[in-house]
Amino acid sequence: MGLLEGKVVLVTGAANGIGKECALIAAREGAKVVVNDLGGSVAGGDEGSAGPAQQVVDEIKAAGGEAVSNSDSVALKSGAEHMIQQAMDEFGGLHTIISPAGILRDGMFHKMPDADWDSVLEVHLKGSYNMTRSAVEHFRKQEEGNFVLFTSTSGLIGNIGQANYAAAKMGIVGLSRIIAMEGAMKNVRSNVIAPFAWTRMIATIPVKDEASAQRVDRMKNAMRADQVANVAIGLSAPDCDVSGQIFSVRGNEVFLFSQPRPIRGMTRLEGWTPETLLSHGFPAMKGDMTDLGNTASVFTWEPI
């Protein structure tokens, strides 16, 4: 018997990459799966196609599993509601939503068109809201439900050229945390994963120098989508009691991220002024401040 025997799992962005591996592994673990994918490009904005999601469904069925396809957009509340209703109609329930669906519109912030900002937040942050809000009342009523959402080290640590993506992904961290806190008494869990994996989205990152070429090559060869998916499925297991956490997956490494908490406090009984902050307060805190290094400056070793 699989870890998800008798459960219904909805996976967004499931035609490729992490989403596809989540759908395949969920099915192998006994779940009935709604395979959602708009079937569009990485940049979004096109009409998409139902074909890619159906191909994953066919693969699941060929292996003896149960699945149905869906090509609604996570960016539309009506699309999210339809996915959830489809799970109810086809399989009689819903227990987990895994939602890695996303797009990229990279560019330096001072050159970023409003449309690129809006579209990325619409798919990632609004899409995560649409999926969670459309399912949370059902999960609370049945006193069982689980969300696995996706953040990024672009937000947790930082990456030049991805202000829109980072902002959306950090919003998802806050959303997941509150869902977990509010859902604790109703057995509704929510966690986020920051993945390192070679996917269609990663393949669009411009390679501008030898260092970035080597980094992309490491990601392509050592960090697979199925390694991330295994963590997502583990978090989806009924026996899992983890909630409100931030994980990162990098090859065979799984990291638990810290969450913002005060690390240094300064008190001045007579109160602070701009001058005393500049002369004493900020300099005293300098050693505890986070530098402006990107993800590569934090994960300095080869993936394992």
Descriptive overview:
With 304 residues, this protein is α/β, with parallel strands linked by helices. The chain has one domain: NAD(P)-binding Rossmann-like Domain (Rossmann fold, 3-Layer(aba) Sandwich). It contains 11 helices and 8 strands. The protein has an 8-stranded mixed beta sheet, sandwiched between helices. Strand 1, helix 1 and strand 2 (32-36) form a beta-alpha-beta unit. Helix 1 (17-28) crosses helix 9 and helix 3 runs parallel beside helix 4 (114-142). The chain is globular and about 70 Å long. The two termini are 30 Å apart. The mean pLDDT is 93.
Quick one: biggest sheet? Answer: 8 strands, mixed
- The tally of beta strands, per DSSP, is 8
CATH architecture identity: 3-Layer(aba) Sandwich
Stretches where pLDDT is under 50 for at least 5 consecutive residues are: none
CATH homologous superfamily caption: NAD(P)-binding Rossmann-like Domain
Rg, Cα atoms, Å: 20 Å
Instruction: Please tell me the overall pLDDT.
Output: 93
N-to-C order of helices and strands: EHEHEHEHEHHEHHHEEHH
Number of contiguous helices: 11
Which CATH C-level class is it? Alpha Beta
